[in-house]
Amino acid sequence: MSSPPRLFDRALHRRRLDRAAPRYGEADFLKARACADMVERLEAIMRSFTVAVDLGARSGAFAKALAQSDARERVGLLIEADMSARMLALRGGLRVQADEERLPFAAESLDLIVSTLALHWTNDLVGALIQIRQALKPDGLFIGALLGGSSLVELRQSLLAAEAELSGGAGLRVSPFADALDGAGLLQRAGFALPVADVDRVTVRYTHPLKLIADLRAMGETNVLVERARQPLSRAVLARACEIYAERFSDPDGRVRATFDLIILTGWAPHPDQQQPLRPGSAKMRLADALHTREIPAGEKPPKPGRA
Predict the structure, then answer these.
(1) Contact 98, 110 (CB under 8 A)
(2) How far is the C-alpha of 100 from the C-alpha of 120, rounded, in Å?
(3) Helices 209-219 & 153-167 angle (0-180, nearest 10)
(4) Which of 12, 35, 84, 183 has the fewest Cβ atoms within 10 angstroms?
(5) Gap between the Cα atoms of 141 and 269, Å rounded
(6) pLDDT tens for residues 237-272?
(7) pTM tops 0.90
(8) Which CATH architecture is the domain 10-155+173-233+258-279 placed in?
(9) Alpha carbon of 276 to those of 41, 73, 165: distances in Å?
(10) How far apart (Å, rounded) are the C-alpha atoms in residues 95 and 58?
(11) CA atoms of 56 and 221, how far apart (whole Å)
(12) What is the DSSP string of 92-104?
């Protein structure tokens, strides 16, 4: 079996996270939002999770949100995992340094795995999801959030336009993201049961595009594509990109918009007692009977209005 293409420089990503660790809490608003969403979902699930892992814990936003929720009594042991040792060094409690592409957990050892804003940097997302599913006990739960869809579309377009205008070409400055419509399909390919995918589109407004770039650096979310442009952005290109950004994506008050699509994935490790879809042809009532209408055979034209 061939290896997946190497899209991201994981070693560089780890260094970027290490560098961002001291300031991460200044720009963790997206992670906090995703964690609050996950905790709300857990509150609606009336069952206990003895051993849980927060994969890509960063600043511990999930643990903080959980501590303030009604679900805290139903989550027993919480292990925080991150590929950045410096991130973990700022946390207390149980911690383990772990790469999302090579999970260290034994098969069927966990009841719950959550992951916020980490998995979109994996070179093989389906492979990472398969490892997560294998680490879960039967009927164990996974809830994940990753950036996808139209995230940072404004910044991407502005940088491309500015570089093409001033340099005669454009390099890859913003990483591509998974299509928001593929979320449930990714879970199915990884073998999860009852897959669900939602998209939470967040629009953040900034006084200047450079404020957005500063937040991305503080999050450790800057470009680590293997095929990224090697030449640093010149001051002229960056200044022109900011002008284009303001021209195309500003509101009447002068603030600029930045789009983030949070893809929320929910799936269960298969278990025989889970709800199963009905077999084709097993329905006990025809759709036409349920709708109190006459079934029209294929090829037959429906009657014109006013005629029986």
Answers:
(1) no
(2) 10
(3) 110
(4) 12
(5) 6
(6) 999 999 999 999 999 999 999 999 999 999 999 998
(7) no
(8) 3-Layer(aba) Sandwich (3.40)
(9) 21, 29, 55
(10) 11
(11) 13
(12) -SSEEE-BTTB--
